[in-house]
Design a protein that fits this description.
With 443 residues, this protein is α+β, with helices and mostly antiparallel strands. It has helices at residues 3-11, 15-26, 32-42, 44-49, 66-77, 93-97, 124-129, 132-141, 161-173, 225-232, 251-257, 290-296, 315-325, 331-336, 341-348, 360-371, 427-440; strands spanning 55-62, 82-85, 104-107, 115-116, 146-148, 153-156, 177-179, 184-190, 193-198, 202-210, 237-243, 247-248, 264-271, 274-283, 286-288, 305-308, 373-375, 379-380, 388-393, 411-413, 421-422. The structure holds flavin-adenine dinucleotide.
Length: 443
């Protein structure tokens, strides 16, 4: 509860009662939320009377991201009165910056295998209700042209803005009310639904949808409000951590790889039993690119990752063969036909010389540097640059068909706030569309 709301409570003339609560509140014995709930229970009329802007909706959605807007559209399509509250000044900020401004809005093939979380199969019901083909049909219907890039990733031909405009236009078509610059500060339960308090107004609704996203990129509006609501209603919140994020490395590693900044190659990056074969980029901060972002969702502090710079080729065998066929060639010259020269130099290290003069041992050392380069990241760049947040509302507490909290009727959690995190490649938006759609059929 904010200072303004406390002031209003005081003014309302409940001196002794609110004074007591205020003291307890200041001592953290009761929360602002508990005060608001009690107030609402005892004096429901007074709770709202002082607020000129009190409104009632069938559905309130907190967060105008991909999931929240899709849910609002579907609920509006069913004739429900829907209000979407967003604390940013515009809707769909993450859509706008996604996919380098072209929004990788889905992937041609999406299964539970593309998701990380305590129970990846949780996604199956929502995905079956609104699949990639349904998103493609929607985008086609709105004349948004798209292109398929590698690994089945679908991007807008022109701009991510087109996706936001499509969602805005559908919300308007179905009478959804969207209010931006409105931060939801507290939620309370009432007999026939919820009340929602923002800095500007109090609202009641029958169904409440939490679509607040995760903690990634705080400067774009990310908040932990969704997790707090989950906790408030007794749902388990699984530990959160940044995902799809560049990893960081120690100064020695950075000094060794600094000359390679700008080089990009296709590599296989492995953590335990999980591997991705995608682009790997050397940067002035170490390693990045899709292969590193993907593995970052699996990597844990203290673990090593293994990089194969020539996936599918046994380099030791290849080098032995080259020793027979190109005995007079320098190993560096040979490797420079395969890799950019600076990378070849790093791989050869102190083991240079003519191929014909090289022992099996030396060739094996170089072969291992190529096929199983083991490195230990020191950390990640964190939520500042992470594309997603791992963990979140435990799926055990959510009905996978409707996204409704199992023990709290009419409370829904959708999108990234739930413990469902997709790989890089359009999977996260597909989860947002599918979970939003599923909830939209029930709210
Ligand atoms: C740089 C970047 C690029 C990405 N590119 C892709 C891509 O190309 N393809 C892909 O599939 N995924 C991509 N992602 C991931 C994708 O953006 C997210 O998974 C997706 O946006 C999650 O949708 P959401 O609706 O659950 O949450 P969000 O999009 O985060 O929406 C949540 C909304 O809730 C609002 N909010 C939070 N708290 C409150 C509050 N208390 N009151 C009111 N409003 C509140 C936030 O401001 C936000 O607008 C990218 C992410 C980033 C950061």
């Amino acid at each position: 509860m904010d200072v303004q709301a406390i002031e209003e409570h005081k003014k309302a003339g409940f001196g002794a009662c609110s004074g007591t609560f205020l003291v307890l509140f200041c001592k953290n014995v009761v929360t602002g939320q508990q005060i608001a709930e009690l107030w609402y229970k005892v004096w429901p009329n007074k709770f709202f009377k002082k607020n000129q802007n009190m409104n009632n909706y069938d559905v309130v959605v907190i967060g105008a991201g991909a999931a929240g807007m899709m849910c609002a559209i579907e609920a509006g399509r069913r004739g429900r009165s829907v209000l979407v509250l967003e604390h940013n000044k515009s809707v769909g900020e993450k859509i706008r910056i996604s996919g380098g401004g072209r929004c990788n809005f889905t992937n041609i093939e999406v299964s539970h295998k593309n998701f990380v979380g305590a129970n990846p199969k949780f996604v199956l019901s929502a995905l079956s209700q609104f699949a990639p083909k349904d998103m493609i049909a929607l985008v086609d219907e709105h004349n948004i042209t798209w292109q398929q890039r590698e690994l089945g990733q679908l991007f807008c031909d022109q701009s991510a803005r087109q996706i936001i405009d499509m969602l805005l236009s559908l919300m308007s078509q179905f009478g959804v009310v969207v209010k931006t610059n409105v931060e939801v500060r507290s939620i309370g339960k009432r007999d026939d639904g919820f009340f929602v308090a923002s800095a500007k107004e109090n609202i009641t609704c029958s169904s409440l949808v939490v679509a607040c996203g995760g903690k990634s990129i705080p400067k774009m509006g990310a908040s932990n409000f969704g997790y707090k609501v989950g906790e408030q209603f007794g749902l388990n919140i699984l530990a959160t951590r940044p995902g799809l994020v560049p990893l960081t490395f120690d100064p020695d590693f950075l000094a060794r790889t600094a000359p390679l900044a700008g080089i990009g190659i296709k590599a296989q990056v492995t953590h335990k039993k999980t591997s991705f074969t995608e682009a790997l980029l050397f940067t002035h901060r170490g390693l990045s690119g899709p292969a590193i972002l993907q593995i970052s969702s699996y990597w844990r502090e203290g673990d090593e990752i293994e990089i194969d710079l020539l996936p599918g080729i046994e380099s030791f065998e290849q080098l032995k063969e080259a020793r027979n066929t190109h005995a007079k060639q320098e190993v560096l010259t040979f490797l420079s036909t395969i890799f950019p020269k600076k990378l070849a130099q790093m791989l050869v290290g102190d083991n240079g010389g003519k191929l014909g003069d090289m022992s099996n041992k030396k060739l094996q050392i170089i072969g291992e540097a190529i096929n199983s380069w083991r490195i230990k990241p020191t950390g990640s760049e964190g939520y500042r640059t992470a594309e997603v947040t791992l963990g979140g509302v435990d799926t055990k507490h959510i009905n996978p068909k409707t996204m409704e909290a199992k023990d709290v009727p009419d409370l829904y959690f959708i999108g990234e706030v739930v413990d469902v995190t997709g790989w890089l490649g359009g999977y996260n938006f597909q989860w947002a569309w599918s979970s939003g759609f599923a909830a939209g059929q029930k709210v």
